[in-house]
Amino acid sequence: MMGGIEVGIASVVVIVFLIYMGLYIPVALGLVSFLGVWLIRGNPDIAVALLSESIADTVSELVFASVPLFALMGLIVSKAGLGKDVYEVANFIFYRIRGGLGIATVAANAIFASITGSSIASASVFTRVAIPEMRRFGYKPRFTVGVVAGSSVLGMLIPPSAMLIIYAIVTEQSVGRMFIAGIIPGILLAACFGILILFLAYTFPKYVGGQDSADIAAEDWANLTWMDLVLKIIPVIVLVLVVLGGIYGGVFTPTEAGAAGSLAALVIALIKKSFSWRDLWEVLVETGYITATILFLITTASMYSRMLGVAALPTVFGEWLTSFDLNLIQLMVIYVILMVLLGTIIETASIILIVVPLFLVVLDSFNVDLVWFGIITVVGAEIGLLTPPLGISCFVIKSAINDPTVSLADIFAGAFPFAVMMFIVLMVLIAFPQLSLYLLQIGYV
User: 83, 191, 304, 393: which sits with the fewest CB atoms below 10 Å from its CB?
Assistant: First the structure.
């Protein structure tokens, strides 16, 4: 019979191998968890009992109800065309600046993230909305896809964020506190993306393109008034006030805010007359698919965490790291490198569910604020959305763009400067924890 440590270490290797071979991640987690407990205890009945208990405990958590509710709200918002409205407003504000439509895409993505919380939804919507417009205004293909890919990651950091919810569940932190902690880092990342676009536009104008975009935009929007823009942005403001205002004002729990936001989004879609019964059915089906996918992943990751607990690997791993007498900076360097490397092969939720429990034991000795650590975790893992071979945001853009002249390599190359900027922002967030904790420390919640 194999020892627990040997099984725990082997399980990590086997899971990575299975994922590389193309096996569905939750299936790999569940299969390895079951076999791991069986090998450790030598009894399949114990494995069934332990894993069944983990399923029951996971799905009974009320906070998981926020997953389908926020997914539903995001899909309704997408169907109602609010992404297009936000983009038009941002375009009108920034088109006079060189590289302005790129900055407009970042700004629109940041606003859109505050009402959807999904990088995948942002990538899908703005591929269809922003890329055709930027190409029409003369921007180069590689730059346009890079901007959309880079700015789409804001959806996982700016609240409400599904990844922050999952992290809060794993570490038993307040979802509301995690949301508040994500505000300043999210704004900082969006601002840095804007600075990067300005740098590229003035330093490498041939790479960016769009030199005549201001003249074209001036003709397009000659008859557009500020009142038109206000009417386009009011629905977004309403949703932000309902969801984030409700949470931060103490009116709603995060789960209740998801329900209120979904209802408000549906009312707005009906008022705009941009939502049919067929759209409603498609949204409900897609919500079910997203929910089933995420909860299946969370459930199997919970199984895996329990298997690692039976194997005592988190404790041994913590003791092993402690034996090196690392300081916090050295520990964070190891953690960030691990996050970025895993982000290239595993999507963010899986990384949070698998890796974070391993480091919790070590973090206790450093008295680390787990809210700050959560922001670092999400940003570090999100870099993987833009890097090969997985790069989920890049794959979403490739599937949605429907342009054979733009290859997957072009999308990864365009996203690379934004991945580098994310890494720089990550270093800043590690060096200055107050950026994540300031709003909490001044008693904002």
Answer: 191
